[in-house]
């Protein structure tokens, strides 16, 4: 679209709106998806979102004005937000407890693979063709979802026990196991009846035991987004073009997508064997290092061109020594390290950490609020990227991302509790006042097979 022969002429500000406007749709879509899935079911929500997704991509593909592209971006954002709420809940409710943790990280892996695919398609075709290709993926999701059963948890909550039993029998492929699980879900529904309501859940947001986990989740999403991940993803080709190095810009962008997908796949295993805090600290340290070095590269590059205007004798000496060296590999190496370290730590963990930390009876609302803030942070980070470059220059922008990543390390050390191998009752006890035991804990200190109440929140 930045090419001179593009049918739609865009400015830097237009590009920033195209890149960031999808997050506005995500905010609205997440809210809509949560309400729609509670009223009409997870399956119908995913099907409807697929139709909207396909419509958005077709709108982009057939666009002949900037306004139509922006409308298409909003539609794809609405669908993406609906997916993010409905799919996560559906996976949690249909999978068995033994694989629930891994399944919760799978959507992040699928997003990474999707980004890699669009990088590859975009490198060999025009943006209109890429949009048409993308419109087929929601159709596949729609057809596939039609073959799946509705969430048994939602069916039980709506009093449709026979349908829930058929759904569980299909999912577990064992009639006896399905009957036992259906009885357990029915028992939990009756046990929670009258104890958890929307009004009671909202009233708890005056308690520190609810506000602290929510604050931690929002803060982690702040560090996640303002470490620069989506500006780097959305503007990867522009960054490599500015770096003016030895490899084709599109190939380098594809390399970033591949590394992110691979690192996210590895994260599925890391989160099972390593503490959350350890992964977050290592992730933040490596991200800070890589963006700091990248900022230094752009600074020296501008020193070589004499554009910074604030050269010192020391920096001039470094430029003289490095001027004859081949540094074209530095941007690619730094961004590969950045993407990999992001993907196994802060890119994955906050998504399920906010759910782990929140009490059962406020988990749905807390997650919706935190994800809403995450999309706002994404919008601001992407929309202001080019403005930051104009204000701080390229090297200053990456140094800013480096500082944010470094500060996140101290936040994780002093503010984020370790949740690995803790049940929900033990996690909630971390935030409860020491002098009293929360009445909500009594539901979670009994054997787990009779107490998995999170399915109904």
Summarize the structure in words:
It is a single chain. The protein contains 20 helices and no strands. It has helices at 12-40, 42-61, 66-94, 100-124, 127-146, 152-157, 161-172, 175-192, 198-203, 208-226, 229-234, 236-243, 249-273, 276-305, 313-322, 330-344, 349-357, 363-383, 385-415, 424-431. The longest helix has 31 residues, at 385-415. It has 457 residues and is mainly alpha-helical.
Computed structural class? mainly alpha
> Low-confidence parts lasting 5 or more residues at pLDDT below 50?
436-457
How is the biggest beta sheet arranged?
A: none
Cα-based radius of gyration, to the nearest Å: 24 Å
Mean pLDDT: 77
In terms of DSSP E residues, the strand content is under 5%
- The portion of residues assigned to helices is over 70%
From N to C, what is the helix and strand string?
HHHHHHHHHHHHHHHHHHHH
Shape: globular
- Per DSSP E runs of 2 or more residues, the count of β-strands stands at 0
Put simply, the count of helices is 20
Determine the N-to-C terminus distance.
44 Å
Attribute tags:
single chain, 457 residues, mainly alpha
Describe the structure concisely for a colleague.
This protein has 457 residues and is mainly alpha-helical.
How would you summarize the topology of this molecule?
Layout: H1 12-40, H2 42-61, H3 66-94, H4 100-124, H5 127-146, H6 152-157, H7 161-172, H8 175-192, H9 198-203, H10 208-226, H11 229-234, H12 236-243, H13 249-273, H14 276-305, H15 313-322, H16 330-344, H17 349-357, H18 363-383, H19 385-415, H20 424-431
Helix pairs in contact: 1-2, 1-3, 1-18, 2-3, 2-5, 3-4, 4-13, 7-8, 10-17, 10-18, 10-19, 12-13, 13-16, 14-15, 14-16, 14-19, 17-18
């Amino acid at each position: 679209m930045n090419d001179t022969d593009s049918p739609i002429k865009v400015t830097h500000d237009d590009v920033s709106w195209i890149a960031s406007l999808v997050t506005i749709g995500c905010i609205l879509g997440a809210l809509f998806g949560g309400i729609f899935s509670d009223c009409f079911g997870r399956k119908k929500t995913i099907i409807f979102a697929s139709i909207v997704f396909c419509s958005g991509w077709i709108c982009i593909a057939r666009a002949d004005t900037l306004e139509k592209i922006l409308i298409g971006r909003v539609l794809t954002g609405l669908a993406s937000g609906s997916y993010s709420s409905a799919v996560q809940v559906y996976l949690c409710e249909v999978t068995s407890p033994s694989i629930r943790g891994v399944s919760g990280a799978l959507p992040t892996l699928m997003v990474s693979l999707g980004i890699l695919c669009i990088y590859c398609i975009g490198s060999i075709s025009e943006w209109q063709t890429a949009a048409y290709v993308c419109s087929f993926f929601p159709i596949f999701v729609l057809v596939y979802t039609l073959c799946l059963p509705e969430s048994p948890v939602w069916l039980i909550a709506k009093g449709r026990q026979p349908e829930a039993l058929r759904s569980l029998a299909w999912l577990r492929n064992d009639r006896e196991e399905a009957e036992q699980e259906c009885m357990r879900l029915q028992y939990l529904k009756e046990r929670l009846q009258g104890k958890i309501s929307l009004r009671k859940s909202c009233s708890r947001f005056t308690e520190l035991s609810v506000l602290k986990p929510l604050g931690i989740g929002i803060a982690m999403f702040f560090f996640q987004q303002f470490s620069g991940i989506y500006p780097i993803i959305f503007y990867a080709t522009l960054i490599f073009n500015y770096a003016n190095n030895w490899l084709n810009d599109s190939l380098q962008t594809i390399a970033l997508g591949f590394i992110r997908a691979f690192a996210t796949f590895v994260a599925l295993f890391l989160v099972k064997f390593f503490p959350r805090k350890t992964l977050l600290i290592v992730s933040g340290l490596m991200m800070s290092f890589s963006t700091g070095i990248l900022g230094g590269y752009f600074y020296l590059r501008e020193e070589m061109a004499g554009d910074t205007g604030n050269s010192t004798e020391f920096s001039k000496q470094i430029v003289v020594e490095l001027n004859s060296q081949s540094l074209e590999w530095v941007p690619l190496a730094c961004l590969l390290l950045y993407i990999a370290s992001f993907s196994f730590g802060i890119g994955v963990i906050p998504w399920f950490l906010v759910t782990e930390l929140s009490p059962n009876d406020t988990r749905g609302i807390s997650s919706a609020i935190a994800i809403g803030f995450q999309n706002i942070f994404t919008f601001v980070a992407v929309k202001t990227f080019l403005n930051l470059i104009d204000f701080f220059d390229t090297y200053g922008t990456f140094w800013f991302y480096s500082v944010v990543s470094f500060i996140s390390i101290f936040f994780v050390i002093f503010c984020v509790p370790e949740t690995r191998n803790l049940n929900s009752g033990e996690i909630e006890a971390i935030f409860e006042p020491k002098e009293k035991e929360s009445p909500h804990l009594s539901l979670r200190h009994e054997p787990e097979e009779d107490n998995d109440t999170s399915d109904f929140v």
